[in-house]
Amino acid sequence: MFKILAIFGATGKQEISIIDHVLNDSELSRQYKIRAITRDFTSAKAKLLQDKVEVVHGAILNRPSVETALTGVHAVFIMTASFLSPDVEGQISSSALPSIYELSGGKYVKVTGFDIKAKAEQYIWGLPVPSAFCSLGSFVENFESYSYLTPRKEEDVNSVRDTGKFVGAILAEPDKFDGKTLCDATKLYSLQEMIAIVSKATGKDITYKHISPDEFRKRLKLPDSVVDMFMEMITFLDETEYFGPNTENLVAWSANNARGKLSTLEEYLEAHPLRLE
Q1: Domain NmrA-like spans what residues (predicted)?
Q2: For 211-264, where are the alpha helices, taking DSSP H only?
């Protein structure tokens, strides 16, 4: 008998990666039936999913819709959970990020995108159900938007398409990963390594320019609160590591436990050529 895997925000790129991975995995596809949960099941993306899986309505701030969507569910994937029906039994897998506030000893307080996810993780840890987390690195798909990089020691890189390989590992062996966090990245790349790889892939002579914090602020055409968040995040990453102490070992362990071969930066650029003017 199939176990129902509910995926919130099912039309997102990471969620679709999980759906495709489960459907194409010979073992997981025999264990799990996917229920895609979305706020708008009439959208074009939702309609495309209907050819593959069950698609239902569920809005995270509408409790009745969530409870209905979770009826009979065994496992749940959520990107950032602020609410979950207490009646759900089974495995919970969630996407999370480390708390920069805690890792910095309270020095950085404005990287709310990380800290909110960390608070959601702590909430789920306290629920009386098995749970595991995927803490994601930087996506290579976003590489073209990295015009504002400042020097930092290392970058944790993975493809959004690989998300399903990490979540798939949890679904295949829930007991093994219960209470654990997978630090999802293929490997660590220094900026010098990334520049060399992109230069080779594009045939362009690329140089890396260090800019001051003030110049960085000016280049970001964003609200002050968002700029402050970026400033603190990048300063933090320059001082320490993305996943905190022992990042290199955490990434290596997670990559070794992924269910399937992970994409390297070189492979991604070969399949998706980067156009530089």
Answers
A1: 3-88, 97-269
A2: 213-219, 224-239, 247-257
